[in-house]
Amino acid sequence: MTEPEWIRGQVRIPAAVLAEVERAGVAAYARDEEACGYLEGPAGDALLVDRAVELENLANKYHAADPEGHPRTGREYFKINALKFERAIGEGQKSGRPVKVFFHSHLDCGAYFSAEDAASMTMGGSSGPTYALAYLVTAVDRGKVTAHRLFIWDTSVAKFVEASFERV
């Protein structure tokens, strides 16, 4: 199976889609948690995303139910319903609107791909990401969006590296 083009970066993200990511990030900041979700787009234009879908960050619920087992809160990381996300990936492939980018926000610490992000996207390993996606990190500092950075898996160094994207 051929790897999708979007895993190499150069994804085109319309201003309206970035605005939705920013809205989600600012709203999540007000709840003291990271936003998370995905960007999808037409299969016929591999590098275009045209829709943002926000996912619920379950980290605070897990922390509240079991603080010892889940010591970190949604401010420090995101936890999604993996089954729902996998279903969205499958439905996107079938409908010709694949999921191309996973997005999440960081609160008051900048837009970077953390060790926790890498562990989450590789199921704890370094053998590569679980999903053939690019990863957008949005910094929300003091309640305002300050940066967006896109990351991709670089097989030559076995880690996530920054890649360019285009605002359209």
Q: Overview of this structure, please?
A:
By secondary structure, the protein is of the alpha/beta class. The protein has a single domain, classed as Cytidine Deaminase, domain 2 (3-Layer(aba) Sandwich), CATH 3.40.140. 26% of the residues lie in helices and 29% in strands. It has four helices and eight strands; from the N terminus they run βαββααβαββββ. The chain has helices at residues 15-30, 59-65, 82-95, 115-121; strands at 11-13, 36-40, 51-55, 99-107, 134-141, 144-154, 159-163, 165-167. The protein has a six-stranded mixed β-sheet. The protein has a two-stranded parallel ribbon with strand order 1-8. The radius of gyration is 15 Å and the shape is globular. The relative contact order is 0.22.
State the end-to-end distance.
Answer: 29 Å
**Inertia-based shape:** globular
Question: Which second-level CATH architecture applies?
Answer: 3-Layer(aba) Sandwich
Give the SSE order as H and E letters: EHEEHHEHEEEE
The biggest sheet amounts to: 6 strands, mixed
* Average pLDDT rating: 92
Describe, in short, the structure shown.
This protein has 168 residues and is of the alpha/beta class.
Task: Detail the topology: elements first, then pairings.
Blueprint lengths: L10 E3 L1 H16 L5 E5 L10 E5 L3 H7 L16 H14 L3 E9 L7 H7 L12 E8 L2 E11 L4 E5 L1 E3 L1
Parallel strand pairs: 1-8, 4-5
Antiparallel strand pairs: 2-3, 2-4, 5-6, 6-7
Overview features:
Cytidine Deaminase, domain 2; two-stranded parallel ribbon; 26% helix; alpha/beta
